[in-house]
Design brief:
- The chain contains 34 helices and 36 strands.
- By secondary structure, it is of the alpha+beta class.
- It folds into four domains: 160 residues, tt1808, chain A (Alpha-Beta Complex); 124 residues; 283 residues, Vaccinia Virus protein VP39 (Rossmann fold, 3-Layer(aba) Sandwich), CATH 3.40.50.150; 255 residues, no CATH class.
- The strands form eight sheets. The chain has a ten-stranded mixed beta sheet with strand order 13-12-11-14-15-17-16-18-20-19. Strands 1, 2, 3, 4, 5, 6, 7 and 8 form an eight-stranded mixed beta sheet that branches. A six-stranded mixed beta sheet has the order 25-24-23-27-26-33.
- Strand 23 and strand 24 form a beta hairpin.
- Helix 19 packs parallel to helix 20.
- The protein is globular and about 95 Å long.
């Protein structure tokens, strides 16, 4: 029990009076709550002098700050909560404890209670047992699992929530961005200048609150009574900064481009957090971590505010402009570049550096770390932070931060000049946290504007790279113009590739032998055909160490980019002898998901919990899809394969037709005017007469439903006979109504790209399929499904557009296969081989269907085949009649029957 630990380490909790121990009470309380053991640790943070020099400790789980401990043996806790909560808010630490020799108080820095900081009633040491649940929830386990929020809410519900400090800053900066564009006389280039100004002011405020620039006037003193900035004083401050703060950040002078009321407003908002409780509070940039300020600036860059083109004012010489403005998504976000969550940055950075130091010559060797698309510099700043911490453990007296930068051990490239400024800012802010950091170093030779895929960009950079980190842009093949030129230079630039693949290939090229790659990738890299060449490069030129798959979770906010990560070591001859560590992140909303990732990657045990599943999988080779199975799943797959034949042995698995113009070819029959003519309505709402001989019942793959008989209400205009397109002259003569209808849409039909490229006639379907299977009994399925969703066309009367079909060579297998293919066993198999999309949807293609292992006993055992077919038919009939209870029961019987056949319980397999 945690309360027993507290009584053992705190004499106060045993009613023995004031402590006579040397360690402060807050240190002993942190130890009692297990923050000094395991993966948790305690960091000593600067003292909060405004409350009598209270001791302040930060509890960290993994690399994630988690809880704040504040205390003084003789202080009043109630006087400390406000300042402690203010510090915790700046430091992005939600929960904290303040304690003295009489009591402890739990608080939250991002919750409000009746317009004040959220806090629970004081816990007296002589009444400890009544609050045991609180102390259990403030342990590393309780914080990481989210128990603390649930326990605290059981006492008091928060009345409101505070925006994180980075979001609050972004809101105000965005406001002044809009005011600038409304009122400045010249708008060209003003947004870029504004971003430079914000970066300069961030650094000035950080230096000021860390007392690094005592000779420079305080930035806030330039504001006059009207709220305007005194331009001449502000100009002098920036001149002083150029000399004393250093770096190239202050070489650009932009103040003259902004109205003085805007300058005054920006400065005021960098001091005054109007959304926080209490009076007279101010931002303290010494308390805000560099990565938090960097994320604020990165979020700021994610959108643009532009003058509205439709409402530009006409001005005379003496008028002050006032424009309408509009917010648009930044080109960077449109180009597949997204803010990378800090937990992912820290996890990749820490684990990649861990693996570098496994083979480093010494603990003080400094690797050269690079990011090919550095964006905000989050990976570079995280690398600097991690390296300083590691190196300081060996020699605490060296200025490691300056050494890392001056020796050009950090390199970044980006083709967005604003992102380059931001990346440099991230490094400067981190270095400003070090002792004696000024003047800040210049970074223009190592964090540069350029295209990392072009060799001329590398001519300005040092040679030899030990670690590549980053999150390259995800862009589909068709969205960049220089495809042919890229194909000539990159092995992976073939077929329908993603732009990110080229960055991974370039990183491997530039890495030294034994160098480490740690990058975010689209998780379709693991299975999709378009990534086969990158899989070949990775497995032939590097040894995979860890693969993380986030499945269909939205790691990037408001973005359906499905991702994974890869950590690998470059080697000339991969051994293929080691297994690869595989981690499936099953949810990403937990604030401490980075902790669970690190735990899963640092142990050799199999893990399966609500957050991650982790195990060692058989090492993948070559270009084939990576089937990353756990040992139990691999054993089960081997057993299933041994007793089975692929579905292609018993059935064809064709893909549905594609018309290229569904609104023209897919028709609704309104009436049959005669035996030979039908009145139809197309997708545009137009009504026409069409010869019935060319109309066939049709369904979309997306319209099929699990276990349902196919009952279409649409028809396909099918200009073919006996599998051959009807010649145009013959079509005009024999089917004049259909020809006239098609001719009315000739321009649209002829312009279909696939028609022009393939030499097909202008009125053909883009992809026609063999009539033989279209007219056969078959099972139909959609392209995207959360689980197998096979429907049945028993008499072969329905054609299929999109989706895929299973056409048994023996029609007696139609219903047995319907039951088998809709089973949990097949769902389990398909989950291993198909790409995954949002909400767990799988993309099911013929190439996946044809490999499905079908137990031979289903085909060869007459009784089993008949029983399975009967259950499938009954399941279909129950669904048709609305008996969903009966349908579910029959499905359970099918799964139980198959379990008895194959001896595999998928619910017991991770």
């Amino acid at each position: 029990m945690i309360t027993d630990n507290i009584r053992r380490l705190l004499p106060e909790a045993r009613n023995e009076g004031n402590s006579t121990l040397d360690a402060p009470i807050i240190s002993r309380l942190a130890e009692a709550l297990e923050w000094t053991s395991g993966e948790a640790r305690i960091d000593h943070v600067e003292r909060i002098t405004s409350v009598g020099g209270a001791n302040l400790l930060r509890g960290t789980v993994g690399d994630q700050p988690a809880v704040l401990f504040v205390g003084e043996d003789q202080s009043e806790n109630r006087n400390m909560v406000e300042t402690a909560a203010l510090f915790a808010y700046h430091a992005s630490i939600e929960w904290g404890l303040v304690a003295n020799t009489e009591e402890a108080i739990l608080f939250n820095s991002h919750w409000l209670l009746d317009n004040d900081w959220y806090q629970l009633p004081p816990i007296k040491w002589d009444n400890l047992d009544k609050s045991a649940d609180i102390f259990e929830a403030v342990t590393p386990h309780g914080i990481a699992e989210g128990h603390i929020g649930r326990v605290a809410s059981g006492y008091y519900k928060p009345s409101d929530f505070l925006k994180p400090v980075d979001d609050a800053l972004v809101d105000r900066l965005d406001y002044w961005r809009g005011e600038t564009l409304r009122h400045t006389r010249e708008t060209r280039g003003i947004d870029e200048k504004l971003q430079t100004l914000f970066a300069q002011m961030f650094v000035l405020r950080a230096c000021e609150d860390r007392n690094l620039t005592p000779d420079i006037p305080v930035l806030g003193d330039v504001i006059n009574g009207a709220g305007d900035a005194d331009f001449s004083v502000l100009r002098d401050i920036f001149e002083y900064a150029r000399e004393s703060v250093g770096s190239e950040l202050f070489d650009e002078f932009v103040l003259q481009d902004f109205p003085t009321f805007v300058l005054g407003g920006i400065i005021q908002d960098l001091y005054t957090p109007s959304h926080l409780p209490g009076r007279g509070l101010r931002y303290n940039f010494a308390w805000v971590a560099a990565d938090v300020l960097g994320s604020a600036y990165e979020k700021y860059l994610s959108t643009l505010i532009l003058p509205s083109l439709s409402k530009t004012p006409e001005l005379t010489l003496w008028q002050q402009p006032e424009r309408e403005v509009e917010r648009v998504e930044s080109a960077r976000k449109r180009s597949g570049v997204y803010y990378t969550p800090s937990y992912l940055v820290k996890h990749l950075t820490e684990r990649s550096l861990d693996h570098f130091y496994e083979t480093a010559d010494s603990e003080t060797e400094i690797p050269r770390v690079a990011d090919l698309s550095c964006g905000s510099g989050s990976f570079l700043a995280a690398a600097v932070d991690s390296l300083i911490r590691r190196l300081r453990a060996s020699d605490p007296n060296r200025n490691w931060g300056r050494e890392i930068v001056m020796d050009k051990r950090i390199v970044g490239i980006d083709n967005d000049a604003r992102a380059v400024t931001l990346a440099r800012l991230s490094i400067w802010l981190r270095l400003a946290e070090e002792p004696d950091p000024l003047p800040l170093p210049h970074l223009e030779e190592t964090i540069i504007y350029g295209d990392s895929l072009e060799e001329e960009s590398w001519a300005r950079l040092p040679e030899g790279y030990d670690v590549f980190l980053g999150n390259p842009p995800f862009i589909a093949t068709g969205r960049f113009p220089n495809r042919q030129e890229l194909t000539s230079r990159f092995t992976t630039a073939r077929g329908r590739f993603d732009y990110s693949y080229l960055f991974v290939e370039q990183a491997i090229r530039k890495l030294d032998e034994d160098g480490i790659l740690g990058m975010v990738v689209p998780n379709r890299l693991f299975r999709n055909r378009d990534a086969r060449l990158l899989r070949q490069v990775l497995t032939s030129e590097a040894e995979l160490i860890t693969i993380v798959d986030f499945g269909s979770a939205e790691v990037f906010v408001d973005t359906s980019a499905y991702i994974g990560t890869v950590i690998a070591r470059k080697v000339s001859s991969p051994s293929f002898t080691n297994d690869v560590r595989v981690i499936h992140a099953t949810e990403v909303n937990n604030r401490f998901i980075g902790v669970f990732l690190s735990r899963a990657d640092q142990t050799e045990l199999e893990i399966a919990n609500d957050h991650v599943a982790a195990y060692y999988s058989q090492y993948p080779r070559g270009a084939d899809p990576w089937i990353l199975l756990s040992p139990a799943a691999r054993e089960a797959r081997g057993r299933l394969d041994e007793m089975s034949e692929p579905l292609s042995t018993y059935a064809d698995t064709p893909q549905g037709m594609r018309t290229g113009a569904n609104d023209v070819f897919i028709l609704q029959v309104e009436s049959f005017d005669s035996d030979s003519l039908a009145r139809v309505r197309n997708g545009f709402g137009d009504v026409s007469l069409i010869e019935t001989a060319l109309l066939h019942l049709v369904t979309y793959g997306s319209g099929t439903r699990r276990y349902a008989p196919v009952e279409p209400d649409s028809h396909l205009l099918y200009p073919y006979r006996c599998g051959t397109v009807i010649p145009e002259a013959q079509l005009r003569e024999e089917f004049p109504q259909a020809y006239e209808y098609l001719d009315q849409h000739r321009s649209l039909l002829a312009s279909r790209g696939s028609i022009a490229d393939s030499g097909l006639k202008w009125y053909e379907l883009v992809r026609r399929r063999d009539d033989a299977w279209l007219n056969s009994g078959k099972l139909l399925t959609r392209d995207l499904a959360a689980k197998p969703s096979f429907a049945v066309d028993q008499d072969g009367s329905v054609y299929l557009v999109s989706g895929a079909a299973v056409v048994p060579t023996d029609q007696e297998l139609l219903f047995p296969l319907l039951g088998y293919l809709n089973s949990d066993l097949v769902r389990w198999y398909l989950s291993q081989v198909t790409p995954l999309f949002k909400s767990g949807f799988q993309k099911i293609e013929p190439r996946h269907l044809e490999t499905i292992p079908v137990p031979k006993e289903i085909v060869e055992d007459d009784d089993l085949r008949e029983k399975l077919g009967e259950l499938a038919f009954l399941t279909m009939e129950a669904g048709r009649s609305g008996d969903f209870v009966g349908q579910d029961e029959n499905e359970r019987l099918i799964n139980r029957l198959l379990h008895g056949v194959v001896g595999i319980d998928i619910n017991q397999i991770s």
